[in-house]
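quick one before i forget lol
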Amino acid sequence: MKPGELAVESFWGRRPFAWVGFVLVVLAIPLAGYALQSGRSFVELLPTINACLNATSAAFLLGGYLAIRRKNIALHWRCMLSAALSSCVFLTFYLIRFSLTGVHRYPVDDWTRTAYVAILGTHTVLAATVPFLAGTSLFFAWKKRFARHRRIARWAFPIWMYVSVTGVVVYLMLYQLAPLRLR
């Protein structure tokens, strides 16, 4: 076996999505406990769950980036698949939340509103490109067309990372900062 190759008998190699499952279970247990204690419904917890999924995706993206910089192709592949899966779960939950509760407007009318709208605007525009860029990049990697994969990944990675991080920032501003500023 060459350095960076995936051993077939490796648990993580045969089950790359086990990483995401593990992280989601680690996140789900405290969230379920919080939901039971607070009396909040699943729909009310969706923004928090979505922020956690965005943070999970960002963590896997960073792990994948660091792995490829160290020429650990197997770990890079697993991290990027895990980032894609956590982003897909996020998108599913986001669409559920949006269909049930609609648009949520920023309730504060001060300088934080301007910052929020600027971050949300760039986040939204770039988020629309992520499924296509990430999907194309993963497709080329899967087909072992690495020159094309690298060409797309140079754009896909920073955009996907920005969208994942600003997703958490948007959550913090809308659901944590804004209520504090209204007091």
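fyi The radius of gyration is 18 Å.
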